[in-house]
Prior knowledge:
alpha/beta, 4 domains, Rossmann fold, disordered C terminus, extended, 5-stranded antiparallel β-sheet, disordered N terminus, 382 residues
Amino acid sequence: MDDKLDTKNPLESVMFSYTTDTNRTELENKILKETISQLQGELSKYRRPALMVCDIVDTFEGHAIIKTPNGNKFYVEVSTECGGVNAGDSVLVEQKNLTIIKKIATNKKFNVEKYVIIDKPDLDWKNIGGLLDQIREVKEVIELPLKKPLLFEKVGILPPKGVLFHGPPGTGKTLLAKAVASSTNSTFIEIVGSELVQKYIGEGAKLISEIFELAREKAPSIIFIDEIDALAAQRIEIGTSGEREVQRTFMQLLAELDGFKPLGNVKIIGCTNRIDILDPAILRPGRLDRLIEVPLPNKDGLKEIFKIHSKNMSLDTKMKRDPLLEKMDGFSGAEVRAVCTEAGYFAIREDRTKVTETDLFNAIEKIKIKDDNDQTHLTMFG
């Protein structure tokens, strides 16, 4: 049809071509304008100052007290566009005069569950060796109140809210906590005290509060605080902001402990290698007042632990165990497990499927050398 138009009427052909070019040009101009508008919008985002996230402490008519991320508090105005705000809300504030601009929704579960270990352990009491007395105490203090709370009410006594495991590293403190969580079908929430102090300066107290709230939601639950000495060491008068923040976090932990009912279905287990530096406030009645020492195993304990860790190993039937146990005198449960693992590697390196007595002796010597080197390093740099 276009060919006929060109041959019969050249003027119409020229007008058609002009109209087509004009439409194409207008379309290109429209696309360019939209692109420029989008780029201008992006540039305005780069030029716009960032807003600060703060928490509302208290509210007044048209004003509020906010807490900034570094812990300071300010009396500020609330924008009319923001609407109503309440204590505990998270808001966006302008950085220069801290006027509240907008209320935002925060996901507390995301913040907490991202930084703690939440688990449903599957660990039987029979997999823990050499700690019969400690197991009996844990069952009385943690397991029995969770399983039979009415029994305590009828007798008329209040069980402890929590316990403190103390003793050398690798003796089975964490295993005891996981085993009691497994036996009571409780959610196991693990916190490391040193990481809490190092990573959350400015937010430690808030995180502690949210962790205990999470424990209530997932009850029955057990909160296991490893390296609690990093958080609950004796308080001293130091003016640094870091020390003050640790103190605030510690005070929040004490407040949460005091807020729990003894017969509640949330229990707290603290763990430390340095009970000597703990603040007495954490150990007073009503808090972590039941102390359970988890020492290095004796000979009978070593025998039980070695039996547990070697039960699935292919051992030489002629092996004499008493000399091995004497060589491992002073070893922790974790070190006995390491001996079994290293002995297995000695056999694998020689393409053998049976672990010999020599493999185990060599593994013991290797662990001893490693411990001596670690001790030397601590003496020089600790």
